[in-house]
Amino acid sequence: MYQQRLECLSRQELEGLQLKRLRCVLAHIKEKNPTYHQRLGSPEPEDIGSLKDIQQFPFLTKDDLREAYPFGLACGHKDEFVRFHMSSGTTGTPVINPFTRTDVEQWSEIMARCLSAAGLTHRDILQITPGFGLFNGGFGFHYGAERIGCFVIPIGPGRTLMQLKFMKDFGTTALAGISSYPLRIIEVAREEGFDFRQTKLRVGIFGAEVWSDEMRTFIEKEMGIETFDIIGMTETGGVGLGIDCQDHSGIHVWEDHYLVEIIDPETGEVVPNGTEGEMVVTTLTREGLPLIRYRTRDITRVLSRSRCACGRTHLRIARIKGRTDDMLKVKGVNFYPRQIEEILMRHPEILPNYLITIGKVAGKDQVEVSVESSRLDESLKQRLEEEIYNFLGFHVEVKLLNRGELPRGPGKAVRVRFLEKTSG
Amino acid sequence: MYQQRLECLSRQELEGLQLKRLRCVLAHIKEKNPTYHQRLGSPEPEDIGSLKDIQQFPFLTKDDLREAYPFGLACGHKDEFVRFHMSSGTTGTPVINPFTRTDVEQWSEIMARCLSAAGLTHRDILQITPGFGLFNGGFGFHYGAERIGCFVIPIGPGRTLMQLKFMKDFGTTALAGISSYPLRIIEVAREEGFDFRQTKLRVGIFGAEVWSDEMRTFIEKEMGIETFDIIGMTETGGVGLGIDCQDHSGIHVWEDHYLVEIIDPETGEVVPNGTEGEMVVTTLTREGLPLIRYRTRDITRVLSRSRCACGRTHLRIARIKGRTDDMLKVKGVNFYPRQIEEILMRHPEILPNYLITIGKVAGKDQVEVSVESSRLDESLKQRLEEEIYNFLGFHVEVKLLNRGELPRGPGKAVRVRFLEKTSG
Ligand SMILES: [Zn+2]
Ligand SMILES: [Zn+2]
Predict the structure, then answer these.
(1) What is the pLDDT of residues B162-185, one digit of tens each?
(2) Domain final residue pick, A293, A324, A355
(3) Closest ligand to A306 CA?
(4) Ligand 1 centroid distance, CA of A225 (Å)
(5) Per-run averaged pLDDT (10 residues), chain B, 424 residues
(6) Rounded to an integer, what distance in angstroms lies between the CA atom of residue B248 and that of residue B118?
(7) Cα dihedral angle (B343, B348, B351, B352), rounded to 10 degrees?
(8) Predicted local distance difference test score (pLDDT) of residue B363
(9) Cross-chain residue pair B78–A145, CB shorter than 8 Å
(10) Which chain A residue is nearest to residue B144, measuring alpha carbons?
């Protein structure tokens, strides 16, 4: 463990620390940004008597952060900021998260904990494939690696042939990436006759996209590695909010730095322990952009607040099921792309490339799932359609494609497409 | 100044320090890499009595470094390395420079000196446009900025419209980039009606490519900024080997970290003070890949070893005239692309985009210079051909093109093209 004592605090110590830090973050907002303080109802830090008192504050949404571009909710003067990272939002105004020196230290600390939780030490050789720069991924792993002292290959995204070459030439033991990238690496390795068993690769740390347990099993089997699911986003201060440990019994969220609530996304009410809902995050130690009740849009549930087999006490949540804004609504049924992925990937013939197309035919919603498969036969197609029907309650057309037929793009994988009109 | 005392050591102190450190680096090589030590003739560090004794060692070339891929000349075990950077070589085996923790500190220190020499403080807002990752540029500026505490916009290369937007939205005061990138920014600014005078931009720090004084004047005038010429390469440990100060009377090379010799590229002999030749660099403080007499291929000369008006005592060299491997030989005449650039850019009508094409017509070398211009007339064309004739002694066909006619690529600018056969 990177910080044994802090990672193993008793629940009582942890919640005491959270309360103390919640007051600090409110005092910081009060001092640095009067508008933000007013937005919260001008609370006096000492009036916060318990963690539950946080429920008096309004939620903060991604749109609120966008509207604050560039520094509307920032706490501090530009002089105090050392850099910023930015959400990789597809369109419109980006979210800017300015970092103070302390924020960089905080980030390094939680990322060092994450890498250690995945079993990395200074002896490891970590190939960092997320991008460096405005996107937070590359730098997050970089800072964590700097703390634990492992040897970093700062290769960034793309150039998959070079990724494979370096894996061999430098004896890479751990790979960090967005969760669809190992799929591309596996594909190129197959084309090149590259054998992961002849490398020293043993750990994969992936995140930034929702990936099913079935996808995870596929990656672990193909690469012969143990994978870790890392969470975090630009808004919370970057990758590193939490990760699953070697016990793989849920994702530990670093509770001395973050306060987690799970709410009903419709009503905004906090749901009972163990109930699924939207994760809401309050940052307890961030200076540049402290968040009070930020709606992450991630759907999960609390698995446990007790000590894990690994010794860590920080709460464990379920792997992210989907994002509220990824939720699909067809014929009155709500579902997440990950749930379709689970059904597909249970079949060993199915390859990890699929596309869900939602379009209207004669005014009615139609769903089609195109998926690559190593076997194209009618019985597999019917089987998949049947399983999806059992899950959704309506018919979905499945199209089996040969390996390589679906387009591959750089960056995050596109899993859903909306057509205004379908031609058939 | 970032380190007043070290940057202003007397010549005697400086050379005493260099001798002491030269012995240290030889001892380090002896301890960590017997093959490398043998290559040098198995010297005993204490046998080095003066700086001139370095002339007993063989030169190290880029090809030597390539052949050593990945760690043949590295000094230390992978456990001691924290990352590596790589030469952006166009083809073939790359040069790998592994960094120890101490090397990262050394790099941060010299980059902090460079940024301070360019007048930057913690109040500045630095937009970093070189790439992050294997290329050393982005990280070099990043580490230097971290030391002096300025606010960094880690945007990386490309997305020129966003570069302009950020310059305005964040109040960028300093821009770092490879030296052809400001040309692209100026071009897009012109298309967008963007006025640099309405920004807070005051400093540009550019390097990695040879750029003439005329090009520099063009950039300074168009952007309304003061520019600084920064040198350094992957092999020497990245950008930051030296920079010109606000006196602009030559590029200071940090002599407590680097020992510079200027040699005749043909004979390998050290040339007299002030004579033009190839710069040879010995690293005095690098651990991962210490260089003894590395041939940089950069053509320059020593301008002064006396105290500069800025107070710094570290030697000053002329701005790089060209690289030995960029040298063109046509009809028995040797010249550098920069020299053609100088002739072209003296004319205010000429735009900073040109391409020198060298091809054979009926077995004879022919040179053609295509250049964009705001005025396309025969008299300007003839004038340019005359001036180039006066310089080279043979006729060169000049083609004037409209703005935007030459192709723009990402990365370093392509200034020379070789054609096997021309169609006439
Ligand atoms: Zn655990
Ligand atoms: Zn000076």
Answers:
(1) 999 999 999 999 999 999 999 999
(2) A324
(3) 1
(4) 19
(5) 97 98 98 98 96 97 94 94 85 90 98 98 97 95 97 95 96 96 95 96 95 96 98 97 98 98 97 96 98 97 97 98 91 92 94 92 86 94 95 94 88 85 46
(6) 10
(7) 50
(8) 77
(9) no
(10) A82
**Distance to chain A for B135, nearest Cα, Å:** 9
CATH classification at residue B377: 3.30.300.30
Q: Is residue B424 part of a domain?
A: no
Tell how far the Cα of B202 is from the centroid of ligand 2, in angstroms. 19
What six digits make up the tokens of B229? 């010429």
Give the DSSP H or E segment for B100.
strand B96-100
Interface touch B82/A139, C-beta < 8 Å: no
Residues B314 and B332 placed together within one structural domain of the fold: no
Indicate which CATH number applies to the domain containing B31: 3.40.50.12780
Query: What whole-number distance in Å separates Cα of residue A280 and Cα of residue A270?
Result: 9
Burial class (CB in 10 A: 0-12, 13-18, 19+), B268: middle
pLDDT in tens, A363-418: 788 899 999 999 999 999 999 999 999 999 999 999 999 999 998 877 788 899 98
B75 & B224 share domain? yes
Task: Estimate to the nearest angstrom the gap between the alpha carbon of A192 and the chain centroid.
Answer: 30
- The alpha-carbon gap from A87 to the nearest alpha carbon of chain B, in Å, equals 12
In sequence order, which residues have a C-beta less than 8 Å from that of residue B281 and are 6 or more positions away? B236, B241, B258, B259, B260, B291, B293, B294, B296
Backbone CA torsion sign across B333, B339, B345, B351: positive
pLDDT > 70 fraction of chain A, expressed in percent and rounded: 98
Residues B212 and B332 in one domain: no
Is the same domain home to A285 and A352? Answer: no
∠ CA A15-A19-A20, nearest 5°, is 115
pLDDT tens column, A311-346: 999 999 999 999 998 899 998 899 999 999 999 999
The residue assigned the tokens 């520099």 is B216
Q: What one-character DSSP code corresponds to residue B41? A: T
**Which chain A residues touch B if contact means CB-CB below 8 Å?**
69-70, 78-79, 81-85, 98, 101, 122-123, 125, 132-134, 138-139, 145-146, 149-156, 169-171
Q: Which two structure tokens, joined as six digits, stand for A45? A: 């830090």
* Element at A391 (helix H, strand E): helix A378-392
Residues B229 and B118 in one domain: yes
**Chain B contact set for A70 (CB, 8 A):** 169-170
Best residue of B93, B99, B170, B172 to probe chain A, by most A CBs closer than 10 Å: B170
Q: Which residues surround ligand 1, an ion (CB under 5 A)?
A: A 245, 247, 308, 310, 312
Q: Does a structural domain hold residue B206?
A: yes
Residue A22 shares a structural domain with residue A148? yes
Contacts of B262 (CB under 8 A, 6+ apart): B270, B271, B275, B276, B277, B278, B279, B280, B300, B301, B302, B317
Domain count, chain B: 2
Q: Which residues of A touch B154 (CB under 8 A)?
A: 83-85, 132-134, 139
For residues A273 and A155, membership in a common domain is answered with: yes
Alpha carbon distance A70, B61 (integer Å) = 48
Does B221 lie in the same domain as B117? yes
Whole-angstrom distance, CA of residue A206 vs CA of residue A228: 6
Task: Look at residue B423 and tell me if it is in a domain.
Answer: no
CA distance A152 to chain B (A): 4
* Parallel/antiparallel/unpaired status of strands B294-300 and B277-283: antiparallel
Q: Which of A28, A201, A208 is nearest to A102 (CA)?
A: A28
Out of A299, A324, A349, pick the residue that ends a domain: A324
Look up the domain containing B8 and give its range: 1-324
Show the 3-state SS of A291-354. CCCEEEEEEECEEECCCCCCCCCCCEECCCCEEHHHCEEECCEEECHHHHHHHHHCCCCEEEEE
Q: Is residue A122 included in any domain, yes or no?
A: yes
